């Protein structure tokens, strides 16, 4: 029996692994980085790998204290592998792998946890697959797991830690609780103290619902475990504080943690109920089953708070506490971003599997939930059939021909075909009263996301990133005498990533022109690879089409060197730049670069 279960467990994990590879890994490095945050992570990681400074993240010659170093270390590790520039020509596979692997390992952990503790289910083999796919097929997880930022890695490390805590409490053996605390340390090294806060809220609220909470608390050994987490996560913070002092303290703890939570940063102000919207969006198209799973778990929560229950059957109660902790904590935050909901999605996926094992085809809940779900699928399908009504409203200056390209490349037609087939299959399975309709639709969605997402990613890359890669190559070919480089108007950090040059970013306003003139004389910086000659007679300017028509820029004498997409490359004499800057100053305009945190990375 043990051998049989081992074989089934291995088969179950293999199915989950293959599904995860399809969703997260295939084609991961086939497109360029998407502006504007991913190139900052990738550039900082590559700089660590090539400069040998693995302590302080730097981008464009400036400190980047946005996030702790684990994401940079993992990216940097892949950048350091032999022949990286050959097997990762865009540099995007190395940058995206930490996010993809974080989600893949968490997906495996979700499946394995539900296989080993099937929660009173007679579907031990299918339920882990449903839960894993519910996580991996979340629209937010699909996007962020293939993006070179820290959110997916944070979700992975924190999610694995929380599942390991529950597994230890549910286990009957007396093994030491070490790995859960180690992964919590990794989570703190990925995103900061918020990892500890979310873990504390989740575990505390769960223990509060359990009669035998003292026994469960002893199982995870918080005294020894907390020390392990400190040893894993704190040394870098101490080293960085000693090395960089006040700038690190003010930027990382002051701005990126305290100020982000207590005040609105970068105009990311949303209403208190913002994450209720995210909860709906993140579990589409199976959101009705999330709410059904929450309702069932809440009933279990009420029962467990009144009477003792077997801890091995409390995973859904634990997941409810997990989801509620993320919801409450980030709803209280002044700054709200869609990515803040990612740590709750593993819990939401487990709760969807709760609905899967509780639904019976003869119940009213089964009928109502599937009717509601089919209506959602029908609405999505109809939106593509009437795409002409919303395609005309797309107005992206970086992709002016996006609407027509979506049609000519066949993406809209593929979406119509897929979602209409998807809806039709759902109706057929519903009419047949299939008990496994959910997993059948998940499998179709698994196939369909590869069918649709690959051409969408390639179209976006061709329209938005290919021009920047081409203009970066041109810069490297025609740069004279270590000329300084500036980008005017649209701000694209990927230009720095692809060109590896120090770049001055300024708006296309009158103040932006004055700023650039002054900064070339006062804001001088360099990095491990690029040491611009600030005394050289000319500079290179990348300027978008709209900005190039602005009066103050169009009047400057310039040599046109090339154009890709909406971007022009000019060579401007510094004497001409300084002359127009003085004219603008005499007209009453003033620089403002000293009064703002320029290019805050």
Radius of gyration: 26 Å
How much of the sequence lies in strands comes to 5-15%
Number of helices: 27
Residues in helix, %: 55-70%
Structural class: mainly alpha
**Gap between N and C termini:** 56 Å
Unreliable spans are none
Largest sheet: 5 strands, mixed
Task: Estimate the mean pLDDT confidence.
Answer: 87
Strand order of the largest sheet: 4-3-5-7-6
Tell me the overall shape. globular
Strand tally: 7
Summarize the topology.
Elements: H1 2-25, H2 38-51, E1 58-59, E2 62-63, H3 70-79, H4 84-87, H5 92-116, H6 126-136, H7 139-144, H8 151-170, H9 179-191, H10 194-208, H11 213-220, H12 222-244, H13 246-262, H14 274-282, H15 287-306, H16 315-331, H17 345-358, H18 364-385, H19 388-391, H20 402-408, H21 411-431, H22 437-478, E3 484-488, H23 493-499, E4 503-506, H24 510-522, E5 538-544, H25 545-548, H26 551-554, E6 559-564, E7 567-573, H27 574-586
Parallel strand pairs: 3-4, 3-5
Antiparallel strand pairs: 1-2, 5-7, 6-7
Q: Would you mind describing this structure in some detail?
A:
- The chain is mainly α and 601 residues long.
- 64% of the residues lie in helices and 5% in strands.
- The strands form two sheets. It has a five-stranded mixed beta sheet with strand order 4-3-5-7-6, with helices on both faces. A two-stranded antiparallel sheet has the order 1-2.
- A hairpin with a 2-residue loop joins β1 and β2.
- The model has no long low-confidence stretch (mean pLDDT 87).
Which characteristics define this entry?
601 residues, mainly alpha, two-stranded antiparallel ribbon
